[in-house]
Amino acid sequence: MLSPGITDSNGFSLSVPAEIATLPDERALLLASYFVTNEDALAQLKAQWAKRDPSHSRVMGRTKYETRLIPESQFGGTVALLDPNNLGRGFLLEMSAPLAFGLCLNPSNSSLYVTGGTVIRRYCNGLCTGMLSNPLFSDLHSITFSTAGNLLVTSTGVDGILEVDPDDAQVVYWDWLATEQGYGRTPSGKSRSVNRAIDYRRYVSSTPEHTTHVNTALNDTPGRVLATLFHQGTLIEIDKVSKRSRILLGGLRSPHNIRRRYGGYILSDTRANRVLLLDDGFRLERELEGGFSWVQDAVELDTQSVLIADSNNDRILRVDYCRGADDSFGWKAGSRKFAAFELITVRQARAVFLPGERGGLQ
């Protein structure tokens, strides 16, 4: 049963499932971000991607000229709420969020941080309640909390990772620029440097111009950061003090989203169309395949199942480790492009999406 009549700050219609008011507060739900929701813009993007590498033998991305042909203002973007135990119900709630990519929930007050382009937006009660930015913010991808309680964001356009204050991104507690740490050449062999005096929010950079296209970072223990390097096909470990890195896992193909899971880690080996389950020592425990095409993200629900974003097939799958795929949700082909997952409770979802709900706010 749906109750209509709620809109978010951008006029996006919200149909509220009556069950949201009655489900147990701590029941797990799922957020999914989509950085493109304009079908015309997505059709142009797909045509550019196909032209660059139709056989998917190697992926470097669109040129700067191609990137400039489609203004980011045309992309749209949204954050949607789903039930991971009943994906077939589709979107329970949806909120517009420009270029929505990385998602990060603040459990202390149930506000949601969403990366998009050159800014981090904070959402609560269906409204954008603030925006954070920094001159080194360019083509932002993932966002998580560091062990110190700060925001850790991948600024892919500058091949960088920044740990910033949750209230003021101008306050930088730690950063890592790949171009300063031995990754100084693009896939074509061109030298690249990042000038810290430049405001990179004003410039367009394309994937082939990046030396690593670092896209996710995880500060799982105080002294290190894990990161996925798209171009190198590696998972690396960065020492937070020395900033030196070492390869933990190689031979990957355009990886994304290193995450914790029960007893280890989960990694999306995107262009290899598989999900890797790793132990605490980053040794392969299990490989999940199933006709996927471009695995953008994967998150473990419990010790028995995982959610997989099968991006090019326009669907999300729940896969049981013993039985295989046992539930799915698909959207209209060509209507949106998936970006990332975030697990959330019912109580937190109310606070993020619904006017007047306070969730974890005190």
By CATH, the topology is Methylamine Dehydrogenase, Chain H
Shape annotation: globular
Kindly estimate the percentage of residues that lie in beta strands according to DSSP: 35-45%
Oligomeric status:
single chain
CATH architecture: 7 Propeller
Mean pLDDT: 91
- The secondary-structure element order is EEEHHEEEEEEEEEEEEEEEEEEEEEEEH
Integer count of domains: 1
Distance from N terminus to C terminus (CA atoms, Å) equals 30 Å
Which residues form runs of ≥5 with pLDDT under 50?
Answer: 1-14
Instruction: Give the % helix.
Output: under 10%
Biggest sheet architecture: 4 strands, antiparallel
- Biggest sheet, strands in spatial order? 5-4-3-26
The CATH class label is: Mainly Beta
What's the Cα radius of gyration?
Answer: 19 Å
CATH superfamily: YVTN repeat-like/Quinoprotein amine dehydrogenase
Kindly name the structural category. Answer: mainly beta
Number of helices: 3
Total strand segments: 26
Set out the fold topology:
Elements: E1 2-7, E2 13-17, E3 28-36, H1 39-52, H2 64-69, E4 78-82, E5 93-96, E6 103-106, E7 111-116, E8 119-124, E9 127-133, E10 140-145, E11 151-155, E12 160-164, E13 172-177, E14 214-221, E15 224-229, E16 234-239, E17 245-249, E18 256-261, E19 264-269, E20 274-279, E21 284-288, E22 295-300, E23 305-310, E24 315-320, E25 324-330, E26 337-345, H3 346-353
Q: Explain this structure to me?
A:
By secondary structure, this protein is mainly beta. The chain has one domain: 7 Propeller (Methylamine Dehydrogenase, Chain H), CATH 2.130.10. It has three helices and 26 strands. It has a four-stranded antiparallel β-sheet with strand order 5-4-3-26. A four-stranded antiparallel β-sheet has the order 6-7-8-9. The longest helix has 14 residues. The two termini are 30 Å apart.
